[in-house]
Write a structure and sequence with these properties.
This protein has 15 helices and 31 strands. By secondary structure, it is of the alpha+beta class.
């Protein structure tokens, strides 16, 4: 327990408002985890998987109305609407609290209130932050055990008057005496709220039990609240993987990369290098917190302790290291539970004769609905939760409290044309422009965009910036000024170029290590670059293609800078950035003009 006065008062206040049956202070122990799993198996919420196939692993199915982040019900409740900016939903904080307090009143009736003390980042690190999540969901507790560092040690750090980030969560489904619980309690969509109060470093979530809506250490704290804190305090909270790339001579390079969804972020974080003698090690697959060190360089930690990965498409050919990470001690949500009590999902690369689908119905491959459409066994956003320490390529320094020094920033998007395989920024300011205009062609996940050519996603942070995106972009420029000549070098990649008849021009996956090697060679000054209107690009022969069967015409297309197409992308970027009004940094406008002049 704790003697922190603010924490004790807050827990007492929430208990009085939510009226749970009991209060349990979590300790993060294996005994606690095992006990909660036994309880959830007994109630039917969890399925224990076959111990010989998947030791100490469990499967859950959510309610069909509660399967992903609900961006439309996610709010940045800053004191002034203008501080939330055009990328966020805003409600006046006083009004939002009034609405949510009514929902919270009695919402934990018949349930247990769990108090989860956790550290984002290695306990005691100067870059780490302490959060306390209150929840009435045992599913949230066990996932937080894996995704964060749940431990009473944070109470020692807090002491009597230390500060923490309060995170309040409820599934929003009180139980009357004798009422049977549902397998996945949650509230209807119109009662779901994921609310952030950046001036108070406060998070309130109601009505959803799924993923980032409920595991409040993840996107809510680690990005939305942390980005606002970082903006005020002079550090960075970014939606970036972190990897170590080591040369045959033992030289270590640390790379942080930001990609929009469906662009291979986790795959890159766990890459199996095909360049002889080079090795990739994973530090983080999703979030990076970075702070200038005493030597003036930027040091990064992974604030998370686990992976909350998308299951469909994770296979031996695409990400063997992710697959290996979920062999035991894992949680699966909304996948198929097979007839022999293992798990399966689409594009897993193994056969499945049948089982129970994510809606808890009997299922076999090839089943069709009444309209003749194939029924997917796993939900497209089905997930696995696994401890980072179980990844075979986890870096020995992944929990180094000092972090690792970042040499390279990589930005990217999914473009079948226009964007070449790789180019480097002329300087850090242009690198910020690259990150701010990262874009992908719309996918099935973004059909609501209608007939648009590009979906812009600045720094892959659009849903996660906890304040005005224009101020956030300015913060990137300010960090560049602070770091000076020690700022990471900036690159832009596109693994997704296609020929006119739809053939991939680049093999991707492990071969992407060839591109990373060129970046490292650039940092070391081992190779030159040719100047183009969009940036610096490889000189022919200096990005190694040994052993690859890429025809000369395909390579020329991969490296092509089509000024006509780029002018259209530039126009799209101008229109997109205009929405930030007078908050758009002057330097961003200067970058637009400079690129326009270079394109001619």
């Amino acid at each position: 327990m704790t003697n922190n006065k603010k924490l004790l008062a807050w827990v007492a206040e929430i208990e009085a408002m939510c009226t749970p049956e009991q209060v349990v202070w979590c300790d993060g122990s294996k005994e606690e985890y095992d006990r909660l799993m036994v309880e959830m198996v007994a109630t039917g919420m969890a399925v224990k998987l076959d111990e010989t196939k998947r030791p100490n692993s469990f499967a859950f199915n959510s309610d069909p109305s509660d399967v992903a982040r609900v961006e439309g019900r996610t709010y940045i409740a800053s004191l002034k609407e203008e501080d939330a900016g055009p990328t966020n939903n805003w409600i006046d904080p006083a009004e939002l609290k009034e609405t949510m307090k009514k929902l919270y009143a009695g919402c934990m009736k018949g349930r247990t209130l769990y108090v989860i003390p956790f550290s984002m980042g290695p306990v005691g690190s100067d870059i780490a932050k302490i959060g306390i999540e209150i929840t009435d969901s045992p599913y949230v507790v066990v996932n937080m055990h894996i995704m964060t560092r749940v431990t009473p040690k944070v109470f020692d750090i807090l002491g009597e008057d230390g500060d923490f980030i309060p995170c309040l969560h409820s599934v929003g489904s009180p139980l009357e005496p004798g009422q049977a619980d549902s397998r996945w309690p949650c509230a209807p969509i119109e009662k779901k709220y994921i609310a952030h109060f950046p001036e108070e470093n406060l998070i309130w979530s109601f009505g959803s039990g799924y993923g980032g809506n409920a595991l409040l250490g993840k996107k809510c704290l680690a990005l939305r609240i942390a980005s606002a804190m970082a903006g005020r305090e002079g550090w960075m909270a970014e939606h970036m993987l972190i990897l170590r790339f080591t040369s045959p001579e033992g030289k270590q390079f640390h790379i942080a990369a930001a990609f929009p969804s469906a662009c291979g972020k986790t795959n890159l974080a766990m890459l199996q290098a095909t360049v002889p003698g080079w090795k990739v090690e994973t530090i983080g697959d999703d979030i990076a917190w970075m702070k200038p060190g005493e030597d003036g360089r930027l040091y990064a930690i992974n604030p998370e302790a686990g992976f909350f990965g998308v299951a469909p498409g994770t296979a031996e050919y695409s990400n063997p290291m992710a697959l290996a990470s979920v062999q035991e001690n894992a949680i699966f949500t909304n996948v198929v539970v097979t007839d022999d009590n293992d798990v399966w999902w689409e594009d897993m690369g193994v056969e499945c004769s049948g089982g129970t689908d994510w809606k808890n119905n009997p299922w076999k491959p090839g089943m069709k609905d009444a309209d003749g459409n194939e029924i997917k066994g796993a939900h497209p956003n089905s997930r696995f939760t696994a401890r980072a320490e179980q990844c075979p390529v986890i870096c020995a320094d992944w929990e180094n409290p000092a972090g690792v020094p970042i040499d390279i920033f990589v930005f990217g998007g999914k473009r079948t044309n226009t964007m070449p395989l790789v180019h480097e920024a002329f300087d850090f300011n242009q690198g910020v422009y690259m990150g701010a205009t990262a874009s992908s062609e719309p996918t099935a996940a973004a059909l609501d965009l209608g007939n648009v050519a590009l979906r812009f996603d600045p720094f892959a942070m659009t849903p996660f910036i906890g304040y005005h995106a224009g101020d956030y972009m300015q913060h990137w420029f300010d960090m560049g000024d602070k770091l000076g000549d020690k700022a990471p070098r900036c690159f832009y990649v596109n693994w997704f170029r296609k020929t006119d008849d739809g053939k991939w021009l680049w093999p991707g996956f492990g071969e992407n290590s060839r591109v990373l090697k060129w970046m490292c060679d650039r940092v070391e000054g081992k190779v030159g670059a040719r100047e183009t209107p969009i940036g610096l690009m490889p000189i022919d022969g200096e990005l190694t293609l040994d052993g690859l069967d890429i025809p000369a015409e395909d390579w020329a297309e991969l490296m092509k800078v089509d000024t006509v197409l780029f002018k259209q992308t530039l126009q799209d970027a101008k229109e997109y950035l205009a929405k930030f009004g007078d908050k758009l940094p002057t330097r961003m406008t200067e970058q637009l003009k400079a690129l326009e002049a270079r394109l001619g």
